[in-house]
Specification:
This protein is of the alpha/beta class. It is built from 8 helices and 11 strands. The strands form 2 sheets. A 9-stranded mixed beta sheet has the order 2-1-3-4-11-10-9-6-7. Strands 5-8 form a two-stranded antiparallel sheet. β1, α3 and β2 form a beta-alpha-beta unit. The longest helix is centred in the first third of the chain and has 20 residues.
């Protein structure tokens, strides 16, 4: 009986501890300072140019609580490294071609769209009652085409966590990003493994696994083509899930070229606490240097388990 009581107490304590690790909180200066202290002092590759980066953080669907935190993370990484400066916006018309030309890279930050349509541009355009359905479709298609052309011409695109759902039913967008969101099991401790420990973009992890609390995203559409260079993966045998997963290894971060441009996708992380770790901050900074074209590395498809 005493063993049962002790086991029950242990399980309750374990659940409490896990929940404490993912407690939501608002951005404050104390937390931003913590990120400043943990962020790398310099970039992996020196650059003489200060790049301009547009961070888009509009959400019309599910609101990830760490979206403003990631805005701050990117701002701090740019300021501390001196490699880039960030402009944060929720204005979809920043995707007009003339405006995009002002930036060297675009970051899509958790831009979850409304299901089942899954089209961020149309979600926002629905708010303009002066537009006809045809007018909305025309504008939405133009803005999507602008973004895709922007990358193809040689610019950078970083896609963070839920932003993969921004235009989730669009195959052209899926082809650019490398996949579309399918579903995720419940939040749990997720172990990130490196697809190639020698790849420059996983140098931050020093050859070791990275364990954190997250939603283990799974993907569909263009993901099946595996037209990317994987960075991080999860062993699905280690996941707690009610639904059988079709592959043992699922990739949750990758890079790829699109035309002359570069794309970096990171599913991690759903929780701001992940970014308190210097390794994740360096991973994001290195990823940013890749999409900006400063950090040259192998982004050809291949390197799968």
């Amino acid at each position: 009986m005493n063993k049962i009581i002790k086991l029950s107490a242990f399980l309750i304590l374990s659940v409490f501890t896990a929940n404490a690790q993912i407690k939501e909180f608002k951005v404050n200066e104390e937390w931003v300072q913590k990120i400043r202290n943990a962020a790398p002092e310099k970039t992996e590759v020196q650059t003489s140019k200060i790049h301009n980066v547009l961070v888009f953080d509009l959400i019309t669907g599910y609101k990830h609580w760490d979206t403003p935190h990631i805005d701050e993370v990117l701002t701090v990484l740019g300021d501390k490294s001196g490699a880039f400066k960030v402009e944060v916006t929720s204005d979809i018309f920043k995707f007009e071609a003339k405006n995009l030309s002002n930036y060297d890279a675009v970051v899509l930050n958790n831009n979850c769209s409304v299901g089942p349509r899954r089209n961020m541009f149309l979600d926002q355009l629905d708010k303009d009652e002066s537009l006809s359905e045809g007018g909305k479709s025309k504008i939405g298609a133009r803005l999507e085409a602008n973004l895709i052309k922007y990358v193809k011409k040689g610019n950078g695109l970083m896609v963070v966590h839920g932003a993969i759902t921004m235009l989730n039913n669009s195959m052209p967008f899926s082809d650019v990003v490398g996949g579309s969101f399918d579903y995720h099991p419940a939040q749990q401790d997720v172990t990130l493994e490196m697809a190639d420990s020698g790849h420059p973009l996983v140098k931050a992890f020093e050859g070791k696994t990275f364990v954190h609390r997250d939603e283990p995203y799974l993907f569909k559409n263009a993901y099946t083509k595996k037209n990317f260079r994987p960075l991080l993966y999860i062993d699905t045998d280690k996941l707690s899930t009610k639904k059988k997963i079709d592959e043992k290894y699922k990739y949750v971060s990758w890079i790829k070229s699109h035309g002359k441009g570069r794309v970096f996708y990171s599913s991690p992380s759903h929780n701001a606490q992940t970014f308190e770790d210097p390794r994740m901050l360096k991973f994001f900074l290195d990823g940013m240097q890749y999409v900006l074209g400063d950090l040259k590395c192998d982004d050809s498809p291949g390197g799968f388990k």
